[in-house]
Design brief:
InterPro entries: Metalloenz_LuxS/M16 (IPR011249), MPP/UQCRC_Complex (IPR050361), Pept_M16_N (IPR011765), Peptidase_M16_C (IPR007863). This is COR1 protein. One of its GO terms (molecular function) is metalloendopeptidase activity. Keywords: Hydrolase. By secondary structure, this protein is of the alpha+beta class. It has 2 domains: 195 residues, Cytochrome Bc1 Complex, Chain A, domain 1, CATH 3.30.830; 202 residues, Cytochrome Bc1 Complex, Chain A, domain 1, CATH 3.30.830. Helix content is 45%, strand content 18%. It is built from 16 helices and 12 strands. Strands 1-2-6-3-5-4 form a 6-stranded mixed β-sheet, sandwiched between helices. It has a 6-stranded mixed β-sheet with strand order 7-12-8-11-10-9. β10 and β11 form a beta hairpin.
Length: 448
């Protein structure tokens, strides 16, 4: 018996999984030209990643050059991936609403080559008409395919468009097939010149790295033009709706939200916990009815929805708290929306400590599990610094989550959800998505 226990313990020790993060602290240095350098060292790592982040995603665009950041990313990566591979490096890029990133991964000994690569291929990248034309056509087709097949994400894009009308956050982060098809070389060159400047740049190194050595490499080998990026207009939430009814589709995809917490809001983690209280659901999973969430039980018993997922999306100066859902039982869309909003009502008046504790643990799990590679750690650091100015460590995030209690949840919900406007976007068979005012009335209830 004891030998079996020892065997089990030994196997557990061998199979125990560790996160890509270490106990290392994120270190920061700001250069005179405005570039911020951040590193998080993990001496146990056998590789390293270095990323170049610019505060220039779709929010840095306008209605006429929407998609410029996405096309620029595609062109830079597409033209240089093969060359990176020859040097033993892995090159990738990403475009989000508030930033664009370029990441090079390799061994610790290749960091000098990686910085030189970022300098020549990103900071000093020059475009020509042939290159732009090549990637413009493929990206326009890619975005058109997205619009015709990814209806859930399409509803979320339209949710941003209606919730933040006439502000930069309203623009699709990928662009549209129409705007991308109209982009020319001078559009991308201007976007690069205006936004890829030192005051708008963050360099992040993770893995087996030394902070002082990275700072020295960046100072010597990375030449980012000086300048100040154009100011982005502040977003403002607007209660509204957009409907794209299409009865040829096999169901209804809907996104519904209210005003959330901005990235630097003191309620950032409160809103995150609130979203995890209700979490996500899939009718076709056997465990769906046993997750211990009141909303899941009602939805599962009556098949009100096939899937739903709550979110708390945070940006500079604005946020969205809501859910996106897919329904094939199209005659009960109104029922699902009613029960959904009534559950949100409970955040203001009767949410329990048990539900909050569960939501806090789920949020901690989500934050920790997201850091499953050096590239993910790098992305976490870079994106947070570009958007909010600094990166919260897991320990700091967990400490703030632990402070969230029922009083904090109720105070936030009463101020932002109770009897407040909603934003709605839907596509597919949405005939039973009833009048806006009917949904708006469900954001509160009569209490005797």
């Amino acid at each position: 018996m004891l030998s079996a226990i020892r065997s089990s313990v030994t196997k557990s020790a061998v199979l125990k999984r560790t996160f890509a993060t270490s106990s290392g602290k994120t270190q920061y240095t700001s250069l005179q030209n405005g570039v911020t350098i951040a590193t998080e060292s993990n001496p146990a790592a056998t590789s390293a990643s270095i990323g170049l982040y610019y505060g220039a995603g779709s929010t840095a665009e306008n209605a006429w050059n929407n998609g410029a950041s996405n096309l620029l990313n595609k062109a830079v990566v597409g033209e240089n991936t093969a060359e990176a591979a020859k040097k033993g490096l892995v090159f990738s890029a990403n475009t989000e609403r508030e930033y664009s990133s370029y990441l090079v991964q390799g061994s610790s000994s290749s960091l000098s080559d990686a910085v030189e690569f970022l300098n020549s291929k990103v900071a000093s990248f020059e475009l020509n008409d042939a290159t732009v034309s090549k990637y413009r056509e493929s990206l326009a087709q890619e975005v058109a395919t997205f619009e015709e097949t990814q209806f859930g994400e399409k509803a979320l894009e339209h949710l941003h468009n209606t919730a933040f009308q006439n502000t930069p956050l309203a623009l699709p982060k990928r662009g549209t097939s129409e705007t991308i098809s109209d982009l020319i070389t001078s559009d991308l060159a201007k976007f690069h010149k205006d936004n890829y400047v030192s005051s708008n740049a963050v360099v992040v190194a993770t893995g087996n790295v030394d902070h002082a050595a990275i700072v020295d490499l960046v100072e010597k080998k990375l030449s980012i033009p000086s300048g100040i990026a154009p100011k982005v207009a502040a977003p403002k939430f607007l209660g509204s709706e957009v409907r794209l009814r299409d009865d040829t589709l096999p169901g209804a995809w809907i996104a519904l939200a209210q005003k959330g917490a901005a990235v630097n809001s003191p309620d950032f983690y409160v809103a995150k916990v609130a979203a995890e209280i209700f979490g996500s659901y899939n009718y076709h999973e056997p465990i769906a009815k046993n997750l211990g969430v009141k909303l899941n039980g009602v939805v599962n018993e009556n098949h009100l929805a096939d899937t739903y997922s709550h979110f708390s999306l945070s940006y500079k100066g604005a946020g969205l708290f809501g859910a996106q859902f897919f329904i094939t039982n199209i005659g009960q869309i109104d029922d699902f929306v009613h029960f959904l909003l009534k559950e949100w009502n409970r955040l203001s008046i009767s949410i329990t400590d048990t539900e909050i504790a569960r939501g806090k643990q789920l949020l901690k799990n989500k934050l920790a599990f997201a850091l499953d590679s050096q590239a993910a750690v790098n992305q976490s650091i870079g994106s947070q610094i570009v958007v909010s100015g600094r990166r919260a460590s897991l320990e700091e995030a967990f400490a703030k989550i632990d402070k969230v209690d029922s009083a904090a949840i109720k105070a936030w919900a009463q101020a932002n959800l109770w009897d407040q406007d909603i934003a709605v976007a839907g596509t597919g068979q949405i005939e039973d998505l009833l009048d806006y005012n009917r949904m708006r009335n469900d954001t509160s209830m009569m209490r005797w």
